[in-house]
Amino acid sequence: MVNTSNQAPEKVETVQGVLVANGVSMTFNPGTSKEVVAFRDISFSLGTGEILAIVGPSGCGKSTLFNIIAGLLEPSAGSVVVDGAVVSGAQGQVGYMLQKDLLLPWRSVLENVTLGLEVRGGDAAKARDTALALIRTYGLAGFENALPKSLSGGMRQRVAFMRTLALDPKVILLDEPFSALDFQTRLILQADVKRIIRSRNKAAILVTHDIGEAISMADRVLVLSHRPATVKSIHRIELDIASEDAVAMRRSARFNEYFDQIWSDLDIQVQAMA
Ligand code: ADP
Ligand code: MG
Predict the structure, then answer these.
(1) Which residues neighbour 169 within 8 Å (Cβ) at sequence distance 6 or greater?
(2) Which helix (H) or strand (E) is 262 found in, with range?
(3) What confidence score (pLDDT) does residue 119 get?
(4) Every domain of the chain and the residues it spans
(5) Which residue among 42, 133, 164, 174 is least enclosed by CB atoms within 10 Å?
(6) Counting Cβ atoms within 10 Å, is residue 50 exposed (0-12), middle (13-18) or buried (19+)?
(7) Which ligand approaches the C-alpha of residue 59 most closely?
(8) Pocket test for ligand 1, best of 36, 40, 72 (most atoms within 8 A of CB)
(9) Is there a contact between 24 and 54 (Cβ–Cβ < 8 Å)?
(10) Cβ-Cβ contacts under 8 Å for 254 (sequence gap 6 or more)
């Protein structure tokens, strides 16, 4: 449309994505002796069905960034936009999954998956139907009434993931969710979680220390530098091997090239013990 009046043209959406981070910076205790600049000027955008992995040294601010995206913490500068609205306070658009599953031990699998929906309020029968559908579709049929203590670590993380999905968030934050699992279980969950995020059109950010996990799960891998952290590089991952074939993928030349580039960007000083 041609703007023929003297008025300012309508605001044009220049950056698209279900999640957009614009120059996000975080300094704790500014201006005091305890000042910590965690990171500066982090920008990226994420579309539906997309997974962004973030790797970076310990203490560079990955969990802090997640708290900002979830609306639990105000950034010192910049903003995060989820689904067109600037994040301010937790509003349920963003779901979280951590290394610890935080399941309630006295509640069954079903009752753990419905937990978030109960807290939110609403129709209990509908919550139950939503939870049962997730449990039965994603590999826990028959365990509806089991207690967490009778489940393996992988199954418990699966329940935690379903509890997050039940709330139907636009964005899912995964903070090292597989790091306590054995290698085989990790490979299976990585492939399943990736497939589910894509098929349900979620946008997800995965924080991980495992470069292989980042490459095999993500569409892009963002590398953060040491603190005060900035975006060191972003690698678009294009592998021609299906992620279901985890072993073949990890053997491919492309996979190893990505691994070497990201490892070099991470600039981790590994020192042998004397
Ligand atoms: P990561 O998850 O990448 O390991 P964090 O986000 O946990 O890093 O922490 C980033 C930096 O900010 C660390 O140096 C940490 O000590 C500091 N930090 C985190 N939370 C606070 C806080 N509430 N007050 C002061 N410093 C904090
Ligand atoms: Mg952390």
Answers:
(1) 92, 93, 94, 95, 202
(2) helix 253-266
(3) 87
(4) 9-93+172-266, 102-168
(5) 133
(6) buried
(7) 1
(8) 36
(9) no
(10) 238, 239, 240
**36 token code pair:** 């910590």
Site to probe by mutation for ligand 1, drawn from 26, 28, 29 as the one with most ligand atoms within 8 Å of Cβ, is 28
E strand or H helix at 21, and its extent? strand 19-28
Whose C-alpha lies nearest to ligand 1, atom 12?
Answer: 38
Measured between alpha carbons, how far is 68 from 237 in angstroms, rounded to an integer? 26
Amino acid (1-letter code) at residue 165: L
* C-alpha count within 13 angstroms, C-beta hemisphere, residue 261: 17
Provide the CA 100 distance to its chain's centre, in angstroms. Answer: 14
CATH of region 9-93+172-266: 3.40.50.300
**Minimum CA distance residue for ligand 1 atom 14:** 59
| Cα distance between residue 97 and residue 254, in whole Å | 29
Question: Which residues form ligand 1's pocket by a CB distance below 6 Å?
Answer: 28-29, 36, 38, 56, 58-64, 227
pLDDT at 98 (0 to 100): 85
pTM (predicted TM-score)? 0.90
Predicted confidence (pLDDT) per residue in 174-192, tens digit: 999 999 999 999 999 999 9
User: Which tokens in the block code for residue 115?
Assistant: 């937990």
Are 103 and 160 in contact, with CB atoms under 8 Å apart? yes
C-alpha distances (whole Å) from 37 to each of 34, 88, 223 are: 10, 21, 17
- At residue 232, φ and ψ (nearest 5 deg) are -85, -40
Q: 39 with 61: CB under 8 angstroms?
A: yes
